[in-house]
Amino acid sequence: MARSMQEATFLILTALAAGSQHGYGIIGEVEQISRGRVRLRAGTLYSALDRLRVDGLIRVSREEVVDGRLRRYYRLTAKGNRQLAAEAERLEANATAAFTRLGLAAGTAE
Amino acid sequence: MNAAQVELERRYRRWLSWYPGWFRRDHADEILAVLLDSAQPGQRRPAKADCLDLLRGGLGMRLRPRIPRSDGLARAVCWAMYAGAAVELAVLVTLLATLDEVRATILAHDPDYTGAQWHAEVSEEFKPLMIAASASVLLWLWLAWACGRGHRWATVLFVVFFVENTRSLLNGLAHGSATYASKDLAAGTVLWLLEAVIVGLLAWVWTQRIRARRRSWRDEASAADRAL
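The joint structure predicted for all components is written out below.
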């Protein structure tokens, strides 16, 4: 059985699903996707990005220098796309099961 | 860049030195850019939470295996080596923590046992054991770290380490008469079993790699045949 993804990993991949992003952009996207609940710090973000690169889920798409600072853009690989889709399906199935048992329609929980 | 930013950058660079050199060369400027972009206007000192995060990230980058998750066996080998270091460390701590107990036990059996005899016992029996256990902890950590970075020599060295430990364990079983003999042998046996599991996993990893290489040769050969 495949191991479930950590929330930070899931959110980073989700942030990259719409297109390539640089580090600071990913932090902002993750904060937005999680509705302010998850605020990644630089050390955590770059450890996760390094791990995801080693696993072949993301790759560097381009680099640029803005105001004398290096910006490296990351994007999902095909493998990353597949794993994110699989994880999203798994989470959706679990959430649906939970809502069904609670007798609630999806997304109506207070 | 204003004076506050220059100072903040200098301080963050110092925290980034927790990361290994190869990672800093590739990513320090990039991480620094994110840290400075996230800073408050006029901020001169790094936030404590950022510093702890960089410390954790740097140490993790130095110690964590860099093996893809898909290569589960190789990752298992690496984590088992870290477990070996933990067991060896537990042996060392037990040895240190029970020294007084050992002395009390000896005194209970032999009331004439002198301080000089105890000092001799410590320097002849226990000190070498502690030095050996400390060296083993470092060796386990070093091999785990090297395996985690895909160094093949580390796996060969581990097999040599396993053979040597097997030899010394058998020697201990044949001539075991030290004060700590039974506990020593129990700890040695646990470590040996862990080493045997790791050697088994390594053999499995090598077999899989050889099979994969043969498969790719066969595929290449058949592709060449089809092309002809």
